[in-house]
Amino acid sequence: MSNLKARVVETTNGFHVEGYEKIEYDFTFLDGVFELQNLQLANFYERWGRCLAIMDKNIFDLYGHQMQEYFKHHLLQLKIHQAMIGEKAKSLETLTQIVDSMTEFGIIRKEPVLVAGGGLVTDVAGFARAAYRRNTNYIRIPTTVIGLIDASVSIKVAVNFGNYKNRLGAYHAPMHTLLDFGFLRTLPEAQVRNGFAELIKISSCAHLPTFNLLDEFCERLIPTKFGRSHGQNNEIKQAADEINRSGIFEMLKLETPNLHEIGLDRVIAYGHTWSPLHELTPATPLRHGHAISIDMAYSATLANTRGLLSDEQHRRLLGLFSRAGLSMDHELFNEEILAKATAAILKTRDRLLRAAVPSPFGSCKFLNDVTDEEMAAALHRHKMLMKEYPRNGAGIEAYVDASDTGYTVNAEHLINGQKLSGGASGSKESVFRNGVMNGLKGLASNSHSTRLPALQGQR
Ligand SMILES: NC(=O)c1ccc[n+]([C@@H]2O[C@H](COP(=O)([O-])OP(=O)(O)OC[C@H]3O[C@@H](n4cnc5c(N)ncnc54)[C@H](O)[C@@H]3O)[C@@H](O)[C@H]2O)c1
Ligand SMILES: [Zn+2]
């Protein structure tokens, strides 16, 4: 993971300490991580003879049996803490429940915990590993598009606190991340679309060939879950693999020199300037992917108005958001929201707007000198343009449901009924029961009423 090169020198009145820490971690693409013949995962745990896994409850229900068989086959003991973490339960309380499971398991100092699920589980369990004995190992298996191409690419881990998103957290790299896009075959389409927005973001600002592929395959990628749903032809899967590999690579190249986010001009912040407010303004919050798409679409109109993005590229970008079913506008997006969101982001970005825009596709410029009048004029123009698009620029399945804010048990399972049937068979004792109910406290069932009270956005 890391080793510190440090020196200590005496100064006239004391000492000076200087150190450099090496950070290294790996990613492996591997379809079928739990297939018996794939030894990569087993190899990590061979030395320990056992594994503690923190995993998303839906992933346990879908893949738990296969996972248990895998560990049994490789003669490794497996204990599973099932986590049901919606955005509301991305909390310190959920973190401490994970910590209790680690203590109960008797985790040995360098023994890696396995973390499997979307960005919520990897963020919370990753932070638990950062805090546990100050710094402990983990291995990640992301299972959502957001997880695979965004959350598990970064080394940021966090929980929400005091109504602020990701207010407490750390930079804590895992030992290894296993990227199995096969999990996407069971991911709900709305979640796939959410991740598609982040891929538009990275490609339009950093990698034109990837943008071209997204544009060419859009309608074939989203419903087929990036070519992973059953019976898909190889062409779609190949395009998806190319998109995902380049998307991750571009993000790593951009973010690695700035792992601790000291620099504030960030290409990957395209779409993340005004979006925190878009996300939370409607009574039921917008999904993250839709909020950033509104921001990206509007920013593109602003860039086009300034002559930084050609008419052709501007229209191509808007067309792609529309075809993907992503939002480009919202009735509550007005000058007042724009002004409020601008004031908020200026605080975060050290009083400069630093709004990233593609200019031209595949590269990016940062806007700092936009006046209120210019922003308002661009908004007016953007709203006029939206009239030309289906749904007037509104998105499909744009609002969060309990799977984002609370927790939705996929398929026929019901959380309020509490009996979580089906799923993995096998040794029930190997499941931490305290983990099962994580994050369920105080949550409504699968309804739109699970609004996060005044949670302030922050990636
Ligand atoms: N650390 C970072 O840099 C970073 C970056 C982006 C997002 N995030 C965080 O990630 C979180 C969002 O993560 P997410 O979008 O992955 O959502 P998520 O983890 O909530 O997963 C979405 C839903 O899909 C279900 N699910 C997950 N994988 C599945 C699969 N393969 N099949 C069927 N169902 C599946 C989950 O149970 C959940 O209901 C936010 O809290 C955000 O702050 C962090
Ligand atoms: Zn984002």
Describe this protein's structure.
The chain has 459 residues and is an alpha/beta fold. The protein has 2 domains: 30-187, Rossmann fold, CATH 3.40.50.1970; 189-393, Up-down Bundle (Dehydroquinate synthase-like, alpha domain), CATH 1.20.1090. It is built from 15 helices and 13 strands. The protein has helices spanning 40-46, 57-73, 92-105, 119-131, 145-151, 189-206, 208-221, 234-255, 275-280, 288-305, 311-324, 335-348, 372-386, 402-405, 433-436, and strands at 4-10, 15-21, 26-29, 50-56, 77-83, 113-117, 138-142, 156-161, 164-171, 176-179, 355-358, 364-367, 431-432. It has a 7-stranded parallel β-sheet, sandwiched between helices. Strands 1-2 form a two-stranded antiparallel ribbon. β1 and β2 (15-21) form a beta hairpin. α3 (92-105) packs across α4, α4 (119-131) crosses α5 and α10 (288-305) packs across α13 (372-386). The model is unreliable at 411-454 (pLDDT under 50). It binds nicotinamide-adenine-dinucleotide and zinc ion. Residues 198, 272, 288, 292, 459 line the site of zinc ion (ZN).
Layout of strands and helices, then pairs:
Layout: E1 4-10, E2 15-21, E3 26-29, H1 40-46, E4 50-56, H2 57-73, E5 77-83, H3 92-105, E6 113-117, H4 119-131, E7 138-142, H5 145-151, E8 156-161, E9 164-171, E10 176-179, H6 189-206, H7 208-221, H8 234-255, H9 275-280, H10 288-305, H11 311-324, H12 335-348, E11 355-358, E12 364-367, H13 372-386, H14 402-405, E13 431-432, H15 433-436
Parallel strand pairs: 3-10, 4-5, 4-6, 5-13, 6-7, 7-10
Antiparallel strand pairs: 1-2, 8-9, 11-12
Helix pairs in contact: 3-4, 4-5, 5-6, 6-7, 6-8, 6-10, 7-8, 7-11, 10-11, 10-13
Bound molecules: nicotinamide-adenine-dinucleotide and zinc ion (ZN).
The site of zinc ion has 5 residues, from α10.
